[in-house]
Every structure is written in C-alpha cells, then in structure tokens.
Write a structure and sequence with these properties.
- With 512 residues, the chain is of the alpha+beta class.
- It folds into 3 domains: 206 residues, Heat Shock Protein 90 (2-Layer Sandwich), CATH 3.30.565.10; 127 residues, Ribosomal Protein S5, domain 2 (2-Layer Sandwich); 153 residues, no CATH class.
- Helix 2 runs antiparallel to helix 5 and helix 14 packs across helix 15.
- The chain is globular and about 90 Å long.
- The protein starts with 7 loop residues before the first strand and ends in a 6-residue tail after the last helix.
- 35% of the residues are buried.
Amino acid sequence: MNNKGLQSVKINIGSNMYSRFSDLPNTVPHVLAEFIDNALQSYYDNKSTLFANNADFKLIVKIDIEWNEDNRASKIVISDNAAGISEQKYESAFMPAKTPEDNTGLNEYGMGLKTAVLWLGETWTVKTKALGENVERTVRFNLNEVTLNELEELPVETSYQEPSEHYTVITITDPTKNSPVKRNLDKIRGDIASIYRKSLRTNEMQIFVCGEMLTFSEYPVLIASPVWDNTASPIIWKKEVDFSFRNYKAKGFIALLRDIDSTKNGFVLFRRGRVVVGAETDGRYFPKMSGSVGTFTYKRLFGELELEGFSVSFNKNAIQDKDNLEALMDALKSEIRTPEFDIFKQAENYRLNETKKVIKKLVKKHDQNVKKVETITINTQTKKPEAKLTQHPLIKESSTEEKHEQDQPEIVLGETIDRYRIDGKTYKLNVEYVSSGNELFWSDINRIDEGVIICKINMEHIFFRHFGNPTDSVIALIKTIAVSKFAAKTSGNDTTAEMMEFFNELIKQTKV
C-alpha cells in the first residue's frame, strides 16, 4: 500500500522545554540504551513478521561515533535493522511525553527517543523504513530553528522503498555538553554490554559500538568446601532464586565471587529483561544482606535479580519504592539461608589459602609479561634452541606424558596458556594448577591432535608442604623438565640422556 499520506509530525510541548532536556540527570550509556530499547521493543513487537520476511534474521544495533580534534563526539549515528517506525506509531514516536498505548514494554514512558537525542546533540535526523510499508520517512530537528520559530510540527520527507526493507537510522550532531569523550569509550562499551547482558547471553541481539561487537564476561563463582566442614565435597556457591513477596517478585541468582573483586560484588537489578540498577561498576545495589562495607560478605556476595511489580525512573536507571525493595531482599535472605547452604556464613568466613594466593601471583605475573617475548623453537635433531621473536606470551612447559588417574574431583586453581614451537609445529601449552592427585605433575595429551598439551601441577602435593609454596624457580624447573620430556619423545629417542640434553639447553632460556 502507499503510505505517503503522512506529511508532518507534531512536536508541540512548548519550545522552551526542548532546550532543557540536556540538563536532565543521565549518563551516556543509559541515554544510548534508550535507542537500543526502541530497537529491541520493535523486534519483540514484530518478531514473527521479521522472521517470516527473513528466516535468518538477526537483530543488529550499531552505534558509530565521529570524534573532533578534542576527542569529543562530533557526530553519533545509531542504526538498527528492527521493524522500523510504522505510520501508526509515527506521530507518538516524536511527541514528547506521549505514552504508548501499550506501556508494558521497554519504551513505557514515551520519553526515550525525544529526550535522548537532545541530551546528546541539538540537531538530529531520524530516517526509518517500516517493514511492510513502501515509504522511507525522514524527520529533521534543529533546536535553534524550533525554539526561534516556536515550531509545533516538523515536515516529513518521504521516498519510495521496497516493502521488505526495514531499518531506523538516527544521526545526532551539534553536540551538547553531555556528548561522550573518546577516553570513556571502553567504559561506555562495558556499561552497555552490562545493561543488555541477557540479550547478549541468548544471542538474540548483536550490538556494535564503534565497530566492536559487545560481549559480556560472566563472573567466576566460588567452588569450595563449606567452611564448617572442610572435608566435605566442594560446593558451587550459587543459589537460583524464584521468590514472591506481597505484590513483588524476584527471579535470578545469588552467589559468591570466586575472587574478591570490587568491580563485581553487589547486586544487579533487571526489569523487563534489561539492567536498571548496577550496569556501572559504581552503581550496583547493596542491600542489608550484603553486610557492612569492608566485610567479606560485602566483598564476595553478588547476584542478578529480575524484578516484577516495581516501577522505574523515566530514564530507567533507578528502581522506585526502595522501602519495599529492601523488604523484599530481607525476606529473600531468610528464604535462601539454610543450614546445608549458608551462603552468608561461607561468604564471611571463607579465606583463600596461601597456596591459592601464590597461584594468583604466578598467573598474574605470567599475564603481565611483555607482549614481545622469545618463543623457544626446538630443533630435535641439533637439540639447540633457537630464539625467535613472536607476539605470543611466554610459554609454560609440560611434564610427563602418562595419563593421570585422579583419586578425587579435580579443582583447577589457576591456569596459564602459552605457545611452544617444536620441529616447526606450534603447540599450545596449558599449565593448570590443580588441588588433587598423587603425583607432583603430569601431562594430559588427549588433545595432542589439536596441538594442545595440558600440563598439570598438583599444588597440594607433599613436596610443597615440605619445602614451602612454589617459587618462580621451582615452577621454571618443572616447566623445563616437562617440555624436555616432550621434546625427547618427539625426537624419537625418548631416553633420560636425551631429555637431559634438551633440559640443559632449555633451562638457559626458561622464564616464569
């Protein structure tokens, strides 16, 4: 059908109001999230039609920024391939404070697009093509023109497009004081990824910021025996939650961090599938159950909770009715605490033992090595290592090749991954620091066809109890013995004498 009948859109809320939008309290990630919300809601509303049009459809949102000489954004372009803004919803999309008929979605207040664009820039253009319609529509807004002429409506430019096309492109220029600066780009990416972690986990949407696709890294959960019985089997300290209290609901999980990290503790609160509180590292929610600042419970307890029954602020970065939120969390604490799974007792009393601290230092030292290091290339005929500069991190060596039979469940306490080149072939060396077994170290070569050798060092071995925690020199010796054994085997002459020849050459260059 022909949809060219729409010639203009009303914008009348009082021209002076527009100039005040940039003073609203907000942050760059939350403002950019308004555009992503619109795309995601369009996807939800038109999901079946989008897939009927293209069985391989994937929702993609792109945020591209041009920087001026001061490394501040001079132009921001947000584009998506959702279903576009239909004629039916077009006028309400540009009328500030026009609440959608269905306000149960992500754009419930009808303020997102209008306030977000003017918070970032004084001039903007929205070009959109709705799936199933044959018209592309473009609206241009310039704050100076609107306020000077007290405009109450804007013309709509139209052009013909195929009905199967669908997209929205928003271009923002003439930046305000709120426009992003380049040095904050990594934080912007991290916060946006945090807000949409659920959608990124399920791969229902891809988000690109300045050409980089966003991902969300999960927080490692503590696996350890309960502090009141250190002989018991290790427990995964994570509790699934599905809890109702009065007219409110909370669903998600509460857990303990494997490693204390002040950027990951505390709670992240969701509503309608996206983060409302806790996207930023300094904005997480700490209820009474988190304990006092500085306690181990405060440092280790974290969680994600999808809330129902609560309203949010207009910019969707705060939960309203905080008293009932705290009451919900108090009731939840009583619900999840049991004698068998006392997550709060575990949090307050668990301590990382000295061996684990040593491992963390070893892994950290390894990760901080310079990027350009010498990867040792072994010629098994001459037994002479040849130094060769590469971009790979420093390698760790393997041990014997016998398959290790474990007596108890293995817990990996730390790991380093490196490269080693033997007779022209590059091997990936995974060194795992484990807490089980009868041997000091051994190798797993089940993945040798993939070019992977796994070397395991038993940190609970009696050797370390007798002689103290592993030092750099001890690890270096184990590494060198391991790779020397493997090199001897590869040379076809797997003898002790052959292995020692390799060892005496390799130890000269082995590092931690």
